[in-house]
Amino acid sequence: MRRVLYLSGTRADYGLMRRTLMTLQNDDRFHLELAVTGMHLLPQYGLTMQEIVNDGFSIAGRIETPDSAGSSGQMALNIAAVIEGMTEIITRTRPDILLLLGDRGEMLAGAIAAVHQNVAVVHLHGGERSGTIDEPVRHAISKLANFHLTSTDDANRRLVRMGEPEDHVWTVGAPGLDGLREDASMTREELLSSLELDRSRPVALLVHHPVVQDANAMAQEVRSILDSLFACNCQVVAVKPNSDAGSEQVSNVLNEARSNPDLHLVTHFPRKVFVSWMSVADVMIGNSSAGIIEAATFGTPVINIGTRQNMRERNANVTDVEKPDEGLATIIRKVLATGRMPMANLYGDGTTAPRIAERLLAISLTSQSLRKSNAY
What is the CA radius of gyration of the chain? Predict the structure, then answer.
């Protein structure tokens, strides 16, 4: 039996990994536990750890961070807190594998704690490119990780060029696509009724996170997005941002705009509700990776704003906008007029979880295989 520990710090990574984690949970070849930290434990982000508990997963430990990472300095301090917490959890539970997804600071902290205790690190979604602080953090995790499960062949090849051994890198697809259509179980009628929206008018799903290097510009950016959406007669369903530096500026603008009856602001949607909205929205706008990776499965048109996702591989449903200036309204009208796109997704076919499970069983965990060195 392989003992697997998964580290989760946000509603986003847990939602993407939920189907994979359930696959491991229901397979008697694995013993799965979760370490929980970050936004999951903060009331202002919905205390989403309760969703993990409700799903029946075993919690190996909770790692409290000082507070929401409202500044870049606090983000760094939170990494230190997670290193300390993960060191204790790994020492106590002795997993065979630490499973990590993506590019956030808590994942980097987990990798640091694991490699210093000779625990194999398996990294998902490595080898991709994007903007903001995520880009160097993702590649730092990849250089610490022992094994890599990538979403695309392009990401796979990039890791090999970065010096990762070719026989330690496998393309499995994006785990967030598994069960996506099944999870989007709420109809447009049900969703519109839940917020008392007008069925004759377009609906925009807004998910816009702060960009750490541009934190001071976030307020104006969100104002411009909202002004453009309202000018296009859109009803806006907005989800509050993550906890990175600049999140307060984004949230403040959204809160100030709540007086507009066309803005419907929520702190958190459960995964099934969120993907249902993504499946029926006339347009998704902002800078969430969900727009780049998941929305194409539904053919939902996406307007991607700014640099946060600027180097990720694109599906045909994405329109990129460098800055939300006065021309954004014209782009929104064009996208709405074009309508839905073909349901094709280069990030996978929705059967990633069983591939991950089989790969976790097949990898060698000998002392030799865990020794890290560049392949060049």
Answer: 20
